[in-house]
Amino acid sequence: MPVENVIDLGLMVAGPAGAGVFASSLLLGKTLMRHGFSVFVTNEYPSLIRGGHQWAQVRAVFGGYSYSHRKTVDAVLALDKFSAEVHIADLKNGGIVVCDEGDAPTQADPRVVAFPLRRIVKEEGGPSVASNTVGVGVLLGALGLRIEIAERVIYDQFRGKKEAAELNARLLRRGFELGRSLELGVRDRVMSLKPAEEGRSLLIDGNSAVALGALSAGLTFFAAYPMTPASPILHFLAEVQRDLGIVVFQPESELAAINMAIGAAYAGARSMVATSGGGFSLMVEALGQAAMTETPILIVEVQRPGPSTGLPTHTAQGDLRFVIHASQGEFPRVVLAPGDPYQAYVLGNVGLNLAWKYQVPVIILSDKYLGESYWTLKDLPQLGVEEGKVSRESVNGTFPRYKLTEDGVSPMVFPGTPGSLVYANTSEHDEYGFGTIDPLKVKAMQEKRFLKLRKLREEAERSGVEVYGDGEVLVVTWGSTKMIVLEALRRISGVGLLQVVWLEPFPKNKVKSAVHGKKILVIENNMTGQLVSLLREHLFLEPADVLLKYDGRQFYPEDVEAWIASHLEAR
Amino acid sequence: MTALDPAIYDTGKRPVWCPGCGNYGVLLALRKALAELELKPENVVIVTGIGCHGRISDYMKTNGFHTIHGRVLPLATGIKLANPNLTVIGHSGDGDAYAIGLGHLPHAARRNIDIKLIVHNNMVFGLTTGQVTPTTPLGVKTKSTPFGNPEHPLNPLLLALASGATFVARGFSGEVDHLKELIKRAILHKGFAFIDVLQPCVTFFNTYSILREKVYKLEETGHDVKSLEQAFRRAMETERIPIGVFYEVERPTLEEAFSHAMNPPPALRPLSPPDLTRLLSRFR
Predict the structure, then answer these.
(1) Which of A23, A384, B83, B92 is deepest in the core (most CB within 10 A)?
(2) Which key words tag this protein in UniProt (chain B) (predicted)?
């Protein structure tokens, strides 16, 4: 599609926590998606429940894909005076700030358009916090979007709460009428769009996507202790557990969560836990137990900045080396890092399947930016389930749970199988699970566990990297930073992107052939260049330059673009 | 009905416990209890922690999971939630249950998950060659307290009662048949059952003679197991040491709250991923 047909919108909602910032952004996002836009929604908020300041950005692209947020937006809906004053700085040329007349900045500014948002809510008999809906209506009117489509989003969101839906629909329409007086320069083009077929695309966050992926691989047991930014996985699964007939439980700690999940898996349930770095720290002793007892377990680690409590509600990619090395001793594990919700879904499925196929712990390394942002996806395919070497036959007597096999994977039965007894042991053991210190047996067991790496390495080489575009320069990154780089590369030619998806085992040969003869630039969201260290370790590769960010924020594509461009000039 | 032969639960491995160790009494009582209840080995899971007690799973010909230090309860809880058809019995030591694993005990008790916890309480760390534990009496000299234990010991029964446990008992490894009856009652109890077993460590803290002198059986005193108040009073006695069931009441179990997931339970579910269409509607 020629560039002139592309419509690229940036919208922001900002205000105190509890004012409906995030709900407004999702209402805007879904409405735009149902018009046929590709939508991205992200949010930034402090760790508190009421007050403070937060914002959400909706980036919508018609005729292209919306990879990420950008520095500047066309319109800001400010839900308090502070937001109106502060976010003027984020406007593109010709952009506007919409706010209540009581929130207009002290210093008059032609870019600020004030409306009686709160008065309208009062007239319609709504609670004062509902003024955000009037504001969303104003933006819809100004952009030339269809009010009927937005109303249907509202009715879907308030399913089962007719009165609240009707009130919000009225508020939206009142705002919409006001917004039609505004000019944002795109209205005619937006109004001429033929809306997409409703109910086709998805607006989905990385956290929900990874949960759906695990469900698609037969998840029946989930335990988690709340920790931002992983908690939405718990919330989503808790909500659907009755429909799906699965166990979703919040125990007393992350220690309890992972041990319960390991117990459940030993008994035969496909189980998963989710947490962030701090919670994963607590799970580490049981990570080794899962490895030693060869119990399949899927761990989702949604990174936030550390050390310790760090920035609870912000983003980082600082836990890579930690999850690769966590726990004492040596054992094989799988670490997968999705870069978008589609990959999160696929890797959720692949991760749980791999855990069962190889009876190893699998860690999905996500981050706050991926976990809590929403992207448009066409759909999610139904994926397969692999059971692994689960034996349904009964054995008479004690089952050789750790039988030495050629690929290191032993057949598995579950307690309760007639005739057979299953003995799992977290101390070094013989083939039957009985404790041993015999050096020959110790060596054989350690080697048996590592035998699994052979096939795991093949899997890593098969699907461990994603390559986008081509050129003499190759940007290498991992996780959600991929989306920022793709956004940056929209305006740059002659540069390719390599996303390392399998971080452990490392797809050495695949990466090696991809980087061959290219100028390598690495971008990651941490301070020490942890992917760079893996490139050095596995390939003796020293990148030409590295761009790092560690202020708790995701990169801006503008900064990435400028940095890459500077390297092209230097060529 | 004739009971099974306790020998069917014998793996044939010779215990490595010290001669005269209290663990032998617990092992014997456990095998007899399972035999009298006619529980098939394949339907029993013994979960053990780290310490001398943990060896018991090597000697029990049932399913077993020898887990890491202090995590017997969450491990057992996961097993039970995944497959409630199994009889899940946790064995823990006083260090395992009351030191590193203490955080899990009140929660298992209050959530009334239908698992059994038998604590081998010898008031000392044996396997690590004799250090203080949370139940070592005040002033006792151990390798880590050469000048005498400076801490007041924890009362496990008070803790279990205060946490809302629905079955609280104390046994003595010197009274094997009595302990066997306690274990049988615990297994038959629907909900979390807690038995603290006084079990001398003959090597590092031999309390046999003093315990033999002090223990008496609650059931010979007309104790009312339904009375929480009486249970608390008995649990506070120190001059003489009551053994038997202190408290037993019925309350809904945790797995009953997950009845939506139990038909069949997670562990026995054939692999059938859910229909995504319905799940995805909220994202459209």
Answers:
(1) B92
(2) Iron, Iron-sulfur, Magnesium, Metal-binding, Oxidoreductase, Pyruvate, Thiamine pyrophosphate
Res. A332: pLDDT tops 90: yes
Contacts of A208 in chain B (CB under 8 A): 283
Look up tokens 């060596």; give the residue: A443
Residue A394: pLDDT above 80?
no
Strand bridging mode A271-275 / A297-303: parallel
Per the structure, how many domains does chain B have? 1
- Scanning A144-245, the segments in alpha helix (DSSP H) are 147-157, 162-179, 187-191, 206-216, 231-244
DSSP collapsed to 3 states, A275-333: ECHHHHHHHHHHHHHHHHCCCCEEEEEEECCCCCCCCCCCCCCCCHHHHHHCCCCCCCC
% of chain A surpassing 90 pLDDT: 92
In a domain, B1, yes or no: no
Measure CA of the first residue to CA of the last residue in chain A; give whole Å: 31
pTM over 0.80: yes
- A149 part of contact set with chain B, CB < 8 Å: no
CB A26 within 8 A of CB A203: yes
| pLDDT, position B129 | 92
Q: What is the DSSP string of chain B?
A: -PPPPGGGGB-SPPP-SPTT-THHHHHHHHHHHHHHTT--GGGEEEEE-SSGGGGHHHHB-SEEEE--TT-HHHHHHHHHHH-TTSEEEEEEEHHIIIIITGGGHHHHHHHT-S-EEEEEE-SSBTTTTSB--TTSPTT---SS-TT---SPPP-HHHHHHHHT-SEEEEEETT-HHHHHHHHHHHHHSSS-EEEEEE--BTTTB--HHHHHHHEEEGGGTT--TT-HHHHHHHHT--SSEEEEEEEE-----HHHHTGGG-SS-GGG----PPPHHHHHGGG-
Q: Does B43 reside within a domain?
A: yes
Chains A & B: contacts with CB separation below 8 Å: 205
What separation in angstroms does the CA of A73 have from each of A134, A564, B247? 20, 23, 66
What is the CATH classification number for the domain harbouring B27? 3.40.50.970
Host domain of residue B38: 16-281
State whether the Cα torsion A226-A227-A233-A235 is positive or negative. positive
Please report the pLDDT score of residue A1 as a whole number.
42
Cα angle: B18, vertex B19, B20; to 5 degrees: 110
Question: Best residue in B276, B277, B281 to probe A by mutation, most A CBs within 10 Å?
Answer: B276
Cβ contact (<8 Å) for B45 and A421? no
Tell me the per-residue pLDDT of A484-535, one tens digit each, with 9 for 90 and over: 999 999 999 999 999 999 999 999 999 999 999 999 999 999 999 999 999 9
CA triple A19-A24-A27, angle to 5 deg: 155
Asked if residue A429 has pLDDT above 70, the reply is yes
**B1 pLDDT more than 70:** no
pLDDT at A570: 60
Q: How confident is the model over A169-198, as a mean pLDDT?
A: 91
* Interfacial A residues in 410-439 facing B (CB < 8 Å): 414-427, 433-435
Asked, for residue B11, whether it belongs to a domain, the answer is: no
Asked if A260 lies within 8 A of B274 by C-beta distance, the reply is: no
Looking at residue A485, its pLDDT comes to: 98
Residue B87 lies in a domain: yes
Distance CA A26, CA A232 (A): 15
Q: What span, in angstroms and rounded, lies between the C-alpha atoms of A548 and A106?
A: 38
pLDDT, tens digit, for every residue of B247-265?
Answer: 999 999 999 999 999 999 9
